[in-house]
Write a structure and sequence with these properties.
The protein is an alpha/beta fold. It has a single domain (5-168), classed as Cytidine Deaminase, domain 2 (3-Layer(aba) Sandwich), CATH 3.40.140.10. 27% of the residues lie in helices and 27% in strands. It is built from 5 helices and 8 strands; from the N terminus they run H-E-H-E-E-H-H-E-H-E-E-E-E. The chain has helices at 5-13, 23-37, 64-67, 81-94, 113-117, and strands spanning 19-21, 44-52, 55-63, 97-104, 127-131, 145-151, 154-157, 167-168. The chain has an 8-stranded mixed β-sheet with strand order 7-6-5-4-2-3-1-8. The radius of gyration is 16 Å and the shape is globular.
Length: 173
């Protein structure tokens, strides 16, 4: 019989979560997005990790400007085709998958028309996370936008205001 005390406690602490990210990694991610965007323009990253059914475990991060140095040059996040070739190579080398993408917005964490019509990964089930206020601290998880791609430019809103515990970044991650 194989079990993990941490997994059991996590099941009680966040039973409905679909995305799990260690609190230290989440903090590092949001601080780095804040720094890279300089509170003047959007910044973003891909969250890499593993999937088991509907559950996703974030274990690594690759920032958009590491894949494409011009990713923030327009003020919004734009990646060119070569960036995705680099991303898929990194995923193969690390034996990880893209768990979600995350980017910042000024003000509220809503999906813009561009976000809805240009998913970073146009695959059903992909998760897009939007952090408000250019990721300036403190980050209130209840204000983070979480959207699941359903295909054909349709999305389900999985934000905390609609789905409790979808993203878990607590101690038991």
């Amino acid at each position: 019989m194989s079990f993990s005390i941490k997994a059991i406690i996590r099941a009680f602490a966040a039973p409905d979560h679909r995305i799990n990210c260690r609190s230290a990694l989440w903090r590092k991610l949001t601080q780095e997005l804040d720094r890279r965007g300089a509170r003047k323009h959007e910044a973003g990253a891909f969250l890499l990790g593993t999937r088991s059914g509907d559950k996703r475990e974030v274990t690594d991060v690759i920032f958009y400007d590491e894949l494409d140095p011009a990713a923030y040059s327009t003020g919004v996040c734009v990646l060119h085709a070569a960036a995705f070739s680099k991303l898929w190579t990194i995923c193969r080398e690390k034996a990880l998958t893209v768990v979600a993408d995350v980017h910042t917005h000024p003000g509220d964490a809503f999906q813009s028309h561009s976000d809805r019509t240009n998913p970073m990964v146009a695959r059903e089930g992909h998760i897009a996370i939007i952090i408000p206020d250019f990721s300036s601290p403190p980050i209130d998880l209840t204000k983070v936008g979480i959207f699941e791609y359903r295909g054909n430019h349709e999305w389900h809103d999985r934000s905390a205001s609609r789905v409790r515990g979808y993203l878990y970044t607590g101690f038991w991650s």
